[in-house]
Sequence to fold (268 residues):
Amino acid sequence: MRWQARSDLNVPAHGVGTMANAVRLYGGLALLAAMCLLTSALILPGTLLLRRQRRRMFARGLISALFRQYLGAMSAVNGLRLDLTALDALRDGPAVLIAPNHPSMIDAALVLSRLPDVTCVMKADILDNLLFGWGARTAGYITNDPPRSMLRAAVQRLREGHHLLLFPEGTRTVQTPLNPVQRTVGIIARHAGVPVQAVIIETNSAFLGKGWPLSRIPAMPMVYKVRLGRRFDPPRDADAFTSELEAYFQSELATARLPVFPIHAGSR
Fold:
């Protein structure tokens, strides 16, 4: 597929605020909304006919396909250029805690589009969202609030053999090159006894970063490249591991292609 081909982060983005980019953006969002509704409709029979584990796997597979088709459609109209193939190495491997940096709201979709069997930790308001909430709950995605329930559920999913997606910064990046890393990743990985796979996301666009209004039309094509970073052994000390992980990200992202944080109204 075209959108899976290797991309170049130096591809220039053109036409800030043009009508063509507006059509690409809002047409794509309308398509995503329609696909979310269709996915929820397809998931409904599974909730009635399948047991919980099979129901979760069925829902995760549909959500992965949803994001894969959406990203493919945006690539077909030159709204996106993506290089996500590095994630495929994780598909059939043992359970790991996947820990990417978080420059944009689109980051989870990038990962989920390539890895169907992933449990995602997300904010409670997303799980309550009309379009995405039903499917996310059926897939067994975990709300980050309350924290103790989140920690227990995350450890359980990892022990069951599923990957877990958790952004170490806790929220989208607001300072260059990343926010302080939270202890949560180390605590979960220590209790579950699983490795932590660092993932590096690079992009030429500030689109949907923290502070980017949805009404602002980004320059296109927006380029996203994902590569696998270091795989850390299961930590013994969550605090020491947190410092080690943050130092690693600081080093890796120092030369990565990323927007300047914080993102301002005039950012591209």
Residues 21 and 217 are 7 Å apart (CA to CA).
